[in-house]
Write a structure and sequence with these properties.
The protein has one domain. The chain is about 35% helix and about 25% strand. The protein has three helices and two strands. It has helices at about 5-10, 30-35, 40-45; strands at about 15-20, 25-30. A hairpin with a 2-residue loop joins strand 1 (about 15-20) and strand 2 (about 25-30). It starts with 5 loop residues before the first helix and ends in an 8-residue tail after the last helix.
Amino acid sequence: MLTHDLRLAQRVADRAAFLENGRILEEGTTADFFENPRADALRRFLASPEDAHE
């Protein structure tokens, strides 16, 4: 499944990946992906204002 809906991904995915410009920058288990992002770009994406309303 491909989604930008972070909450949906956290609920239904076993694994997650973050792509930027068509390249995978980070991938792993969903828990690790959201709790311990390594890539700066992923940390910025997870902190985006679009996600703050939930």
